[in-house]
Amino acid sequence: MSDMKNTHDFSLLKSVVQELSQPNSLKSVSHRHHHNVPLPSVEKLEDIVNQLRAVLFPGYFGTSDLTPGNMEYYIGSTLDGVVRELSDQIKFGFCFECDASSSMQCENCELKAHRITSDFVRKLPELRRMLSLDVEAAYEGDPAARIPGETIFCYPSIRAMTNQRIAHELYKQNVPLIPRIIGEMAHRETGIDIHPGAEIGEKFFMDHGTGIVIGETSVIGRNVRLYQGVTLGAKSFPLDGEGNPIKGIARHPIVKDNVIIYSGATVLGRITIGENAIIGGNVFISRDVSPNSTITQSRSAIFESDNVDGAGI
Question: What is the pTM of this model?
Fold first, then answer.
């Protein structure tokens, strides 16, 4: 009986393996490494982001045994490891986009990855400055925050924006795949989905944050606050002559300075929300909003009737 069972299992396994190995089945789900270079590693990128978080917010993340005397050594040694690892991952990202017919030499990708990594590291002081203003906005915008450090350590807005501002710098350098992976790390951890292409100004705060979606070509000004469930999305996707979506066009909202958008609001298309505007909860916006406007839901009509089945309403 056991031999019959084993024969049946082997025959079944062989049949499934053959089916899963068919070229048609593999067409859109299989990746073949080119130039013997592996794919970027999600685990390595998670470690890189954690190391950068420790450099950007020393004492809150990474080691807590920091003093003015050892700060430079700690940041220097941490960044030394980050530079090596990030350069490798960026190189792997470029190789991911290569195909077997590419004339690009791996040495060129390696030099390009090193240059981009150096440019990124030069931006870290400015990136920290921007994040410090995000922390300030979170503390000022939430009366539940007792001290600014609480927002650094606990708030999903700060965690998501740390990833986004890192990813955005790499996105601007046309690094493939890596920025999306870094963005999706924050999405998985916080429920906040921000495309690394989105341009976000100083003092940005997402109160609660869960369910916020910010599309690739969104442009957000200074001192903007969003609440949970807000969508800054595309209204439509123009198609080319073959019916495929046209890539790279501006299709998401522009949100000017000092705007507040309350929970559940949906803002779609390449429209402009003017300075100091307030968008109420659960509204749908697909047209420009003038500066200093307040947009809310229409007042609900309430009907009272003795007619139980509602006839005549």
Answer: 0.86
Share of the chain above pLDDT 70, in %: 87
pLDDT of residue 291: 98
62 with 54: CB under 8 angstroms? yes
Architecture of domain 198-299 in this structure? 3 Solenoid (2.160)
Tell me the pLDDT band of 263, cut-offs 50, 70 and 90: very high
Amino acid code (one letter) for 94: F
- First-to-last C-alpha distance (Å) of the chain: 73
Q: Distance of CA 163 to CAs 33, 75, 129, 262, 290, Å?
A: 27, 19, 15, 23, 32
Radius of gyration for the alpha carbons in the chain, expressed in angstroms and rounded:
25
> Which superfamily does 32-191 belong to?
serine acetyltransferase, domain 1 (1.10.3130.10)
List, in order, residues 6 or more apart from 288 with CB less than 8 Å away. 271, 272, 273, 274
Confidence of residue 20 (pLDDT cuts 50, 70, 90): confident
Query: Comparing C-alpha atoms, which of 248, 297, 244, 288 is closest to residue 268?
Result: 288
Question: β-strands 254-255, 199-200: how paired?
Answer: unpaired
Contact between residue 175 and residue 196 where contact means Cβ atoms under 8 Å apart: no
Quote the tokens at residue 208: 């609660």
The domains of the chain are located at 32-191, 198-299
87 alpha carbon, distance to own chain's centre: 20
Q: Which residues have CB under 8 Å from 53's CB, separation 6+?
A: 61, 62, 162
Closest residue by Cα to residue 205 from 145, 120, 253, 251: 145
Give the residue from 305, 302, 215, 208 showing the smallest Cα distance to 264.
208
Structure confidence at residue 108 as a pLDDT band (50, 70, 90)? confident
- Residue closest to 48 by CA, chosen among 199, 170, 133: 170
CA within 13 Å, CB half, 8: 5
